[in-house]
Transcriptional regulator CtsR (Lacticaseibacillus chiayiensis), 310 residues
Amino acid sequence: MQRENISDIIEAYLKTILAQEAAVEIRRAEIARRFNCVPSQINYVIKTRFTPARGYIVESKRGGGGYIRIVKVKLTDDQDLVQIMRQHIPKRLRLRDARDLIQELFDNSLISQQSGNLLLAAMNHETLGILDQGTEEHLRSRMFLAFLDRLRYER
Amino acid sequence: MQRENISDIIEAYLKTILAQEAAVEIRRAEIARRFNCVPSQINYVIKTRFTPARGYIVESKRGGGGYIRIVKVKLTDDQDLVQIMRQHIPKRLRLRDARDLIQELFDNSLISQQSGNLLLAAMNHETLGILDQGTEEHLRSRMFLAFLDRLRYER
DNA sequence: TTGACTTTGACCAATCTTGACTATTACACA
DNA sequence: TGTGTAATAGTCAAGATTGGTCAAAGTCAA
């Protein structure tokens, strides 16, 4: 099955590098040439796949000698992660962002796999879908904040 | 033979694959073409035959490179309690009843303390309180059903 | 006839791709 | 020192490519 789209392929390529190095530094045009796509495609990949919710920080510089650098953040203090997340939960939380956040919590050993799965079930569109979209996302945000608060007390 | 409807045929086709692989990944339009039906028929088949209660998880993605993936999950050995609970969840679930049910799950070692706490946070009145009482209790019921379905899976 | 299940199709939503236009930076050179 | 130019990256919106939803119409057995 090779119906993968270019974005996924580029994502995989970058993650291959990140699996070995703490950061990747690329030149946008070069990557675009390598994967035979327009340069702005790289921005799309970064914006959708290397988000803060997934634990990435992206820096760049334009002009001669310009670059894009992707860094995988590794926090040493778990309490910080909860705090930081808490401060950045928007009033309305989309399902895909919630997924990423839960994955982050799991990756950092703050919740078990079971907990993650159950939370996902709770915040799923299947479950909340009886609400209008605005209310659904608002409620998802509230639920996530409640989780995080509970996580803080647990420790 | 000639009595079979398309939905049954598509169901059988997918299950043939699932008998050999742990998951099927399809493109909706392609399957629809193969069986000479409209694409939304595939959604109907999935919704009626590949439900969580029957041990399937369905994921999908739209847009370029989109897909529908059906995963057959292993059911846990001991699920009597889950089954019984599932059959008795009312359309509207009050918080105090939800508490008791979660406690029951914990007492029977079906969920960890962490999971229980997080679920409680999710279904709390603090969290769901922005809804009117009817909606709140209805949603709590839906959430609980979603939990129970998840609990039946091993992963 | 009725009610459950199936089939269809119009319309909706999410995701990816592309390209025109914009913003920044380094460097050469007046 | 100032300024123009080449080299880079960023933004945004239109278009393409998928799957999702819903309700009306069809089918069939009790």
About this structure: Helices of chain B lie at 6-18, 28-34, 39-49, 80-88, 95-107, 113-123, 125-128, 133-151.
